[in-house]
Write a structure and sequence with these properties.
The chain is α/β, with parallel strands linked by helices. It has helices at residues 15-22, 35-42, 53-62, 97-109, 126-139, 177-188, 201-232, 236-243, 265-275, 281-291, 293-307, 336-344, 359-366, and strands at residues 5-9, 27-31, 66-68, 79-82, 115-118, 148-151, 170-172, 195-197, 317-320, 350-353, 384-387, 409-412, 424-425. The protein contains 13 helices and 13 strands. The strands form three sheets. It has a six-stranded parallel β-sheet, with helices on both faces. It has a five-stranded parallel β-sheet with strand order 10-9-11-12-13, with helices on one face. The longest helix has 32 residues, at 201-232. It is globular, with a radius of gyration of 23 Å.
Amino acid sequence: MNSIKICVIGLGYVGLPLARLFSTKFETVGFDMNQSRVNALMSGHDSTLEVSDELLQEAIKNYGFICTSDIEKIKNCNFYVVAVPTPVDDNNRPDLRPLWSASETVGRVIKKDDIVVYESTVYPGVTEEECLPIVERISGLKFNVDFFAGYSPERINPGDKEHTVEKIKKVTSGSTPEIADVVDEIYNSVLVNGTHKAPSIRVAEASKIIENSQRDVNIAFMNELAKIFNAMGIDTNDVIEAASSKWNFIKLKPGLVGGHCISVDPYYLIQKAQVYGVLPRVMFSARRLNDGMGDYVGNQVVKLMNKKGILVQDSKILILGFTFKENCPDVRNTKVIDIYHTLAEYTKNITIYDPWANADKVMHEYGVILNNGEMNILFYQFDAVILAVAHNEFNSINIRRFLATNNGVVYDVKGVLNKEWIDGRL
């Protein structure tokens, strides 16, 4: 264990917290192709806010943790961890290009007896069928003879300060029983709650993909219930509270399903299942339903405005929150943009306010402008207000203060506002 030197490839929401944690026990290098990201981290700041400046600076100063984009500086490592994104393309098909690229990087530096562990979320078989052949081809080494592999799926929940990486119980696996023990021991040495050692890489891959698929299906059910009860004039939250009084009821809420995990990962298993001749109807229906909730919210707001006699054409609408979840700067695959697009068919006077989101990133990724000045200047201006994300900054404000008149509409996507303030919610 004393001879282990770790390199984490990919310093995003997953890779950086893991690399920082490893650095407390092992000599650790973080590698990322984005030089500006590397520069920011070495200055002691993580823009994703997953690692506090204090912890990051401590790792750099006290544990010798470094970040680099120079491949020469990772050649003397012997335990490589790949933590790059696994997105989908415009047709929701798995896009493995980041994994292929990272595998090429590993192939250029891996040596005899080294180990590479993948953390990126994939369908069963990707590590051994897609990634390791690339490492073999580039390195000229033979898998399970000259070098070895493992898979330990990431379980990072962006913005979650309770279930941080050191407290997460991790699934581990290895390409041989002996390597599985080594991988498990290395992860166990830095984790408070230990590990679960899976019997194979494919089992570990499958375990990750169903974690997020299960949540996707469960949330889709709640979203479907919200549509039914809204049509009936019944408050969905009241129904959930009543049902949750039963000991085995699983209490979930309806909502927008965005981000890089729950809204993306199921497509990996859906695609692979069809290769084997299985049509995953429940998963596919859940994805379609959840992907349509932003449009549903937008249309519900329009309906409420019409009922109150508010002219929707050229009306002024405020959307509070743009990130995919509360108290987190992550805007990846946010479904708030779908609310915006639906309303933009009626009016261009839409203001988005989100103190957590980066305005430049939102403009680059989605082509919309954030109005992130002082919140107070937005008071008493709008015909309708939508609470899309429940950031702490919005908790203590009477949302109706944003309305130009008492006749305006307040819609609560998150189901957290005082019922007396709102006109509708999921």
